[in-house]
Amino acid sequence: MLRAVTISKLHRVANCAYPCAWAGYSSQFAFRAEAAHEQTSRQFSSSTSNISTSGKAFASTVAAVFASGAFVAGICASQQTQTTSQAEAASSEKVDKRLPTIRKSEVARHTTKDTGIWVTYLDGVYDVTEFVDMHPGGNKILLAAGKSIAPYWAMYAVHKTPETREILEEYRIGNLPPEEAEAEVATSAYANEPERSPRLRVLTTTPFNGETPAEVLEREDITPNELHFKRHHLPVPLVEDEAYELTVGGDLEGMTLSLEDLRRFPKHTVRATLQCSGNRRTEMAAARRKGLPPVRGLPWHSGALSTAEWSGARLRDVLLAAGVSEDSPNCPFIFVGLDTGATGERYEASIPIEKAMSVYGDVLLAYEMNGEPLPRDHGYPVRAIVPGTTAARSVKWVYQVLASDEECTGFWQQNDYKAFCPSQDPNTVDWSSAPAMQEFPVTSFITSPRSGDKIPPGQKEIEIKGIAIAGGGRA
C-alpha cells in the first residue's frame, strides 16, 4: 500500500539579476522506506516516502506514481544503431556481367522521381527511386542524386555493414566502365575526434553518440562534463580561438564578434537540462503494438539527458546590440554550426523570436560548461543553449546567428525532430504536415529498480529512484 508520497516542487534557480524561467530545470527524486524527508539541491531534489509492496501491487504502485509524467519521444528519422563493422566484400566480386555498362554522364541525367534517381558507388550504378522514401536519413539521399554516394557512405558508420551493402545491391541496375569506377572513400573526417569516457553507453562511433549512465543521473545534480550525453550528426570540428568569429546577420544590419568580443557582454549562468528528442526510444519500441510501423532512430535508453551549468552571453543582449528591437517583426533566428557534412552542408536549426528575445528565456551563446571552457564535444568555443527546448535546437559550434523571415529550411528542422501519430509510417509521412519540435513536455521516469530487476520475496521496503523534468516550464 502506498502510504505517502512527497515530491518536491520544481523551483527556480537565481543565476542572474532576474528570476530564471523554469524551462529545462530538473527534479530528481527518490522514495526511501520508513523515512519521509525532502532534500533540495537547487535544480535536482530528492524526496522520500514509505512504500510496502508485493508482486503486482508494486508494479501498479509504480505505474500510478509515474503515469502522469510518462513521455514518449516522437518519431525522428535518424542514423540507425551501429553494428560491428565488417570488411565489405570486394566490389569486383559483386559485379553481374549481365548488367549493362552505364557511364557517369548518363547517371547525371537521373536526378528526380520523374527521370528516376540514380547514384553510383564504387563500380556500380543504382536506381534508388523507390528507396528514397524509406531511407533512414530522410531525403538527404537526394544530395547524391545523379552522383556518387561514396562521400556519404564514408560519413556514417551504419553504412559499413554487410546488411546495408546487401540492401544497396538490390537496387543495382548496371556497372560503371572500369575507367570510371570509384575508390573507397576513407573516413578521414573523423580522424580528429576528441577522446570520450569509456563510461558512456556508446550507440554509434561515426558520428559519435553516447548516453549518460543512469546511476550518474540518479546521483549527480550536475552531470560531469565527460559524462554528459553526446549527440552528433556530423564530425566534430576543430576550431581555433584566434580564427573564431560569430556573425550576427541575415535580415539585420549585423555585426561580427570574436570570442573576446562575446566575453565583453554581461556573463550569465543558467542551470539547464538538455534532452534529446529520442530519449527513451527503446521503451517506445518495446511498447509498440503489433501492426504499427517500427520505431526508427538511435536506440536511446534514458541517458540522452544531462544537466550542466552553462555560462555565456544572453542571446537577447547580443541581438539588441545587433539592432533587434523589442517590436521587431515576428521572425525566427537561425543558428548555424561549424560541423560540416560530406558535401559542405552544416547543422542548423531555428527558434522563434519569442524565445530568443525573452527576458526569462535564458537563451545563451555559451562558452563555458560547469565553470570550464566548453569541451569540443559540446560545442567549443561557442554553442547555443535553449533551455526547455529539445536539444536539437541548442546548436553546437555556432558561427552564425541569422534573422530570417521564415523558419530554418535545413534537414534537421524540416525532415527530422518532428512528432507524428504512432500509426503514421515514417517512410511515407508528409514531414511538412507537422511543426518542428521546440519545447518538450513535463516528463518523468524511473531509473531504479531497472527493467528486469527481481524483488526478493518478502521484501517490504524498496527504494525507487527517478528523474522529473519541467520541460518548457508549463507544469
From TrEMBL:
The enzyme's E.C. designation: 1.8.3.1
Swiss-Prot/TrEMBL GO biological process terms: sulfur compound metabolic process
GO molecular function, one term: molybdopterin cofactor binding
SMART domains assigned to the protein according to its UniProt record, in alphabetical order: Cyt-b5
InterPro entries associated with the record: Cyt_B5-like_heme/steroid-bd, Cyt_B5-like_heme/steroid_sf, Cyt_B5_heme-BS, Mopterin_OxRdtase_euk, OxRdtase_Mopterin-bd_dom, OxRdtase_Mopterin-bd_sf
GO cellular component: mitochondrial intermembrane space
Origin: domain of life: Eukaryota
Pfam families, per the entry: Cyt-b5 (PF00173), Oxidored_molyb (PF00174)
Protein name per Swiss-Prot or TrEMBL: sulfite oxidase
Species this chain originates from: Tetraselmis sp. GSL018
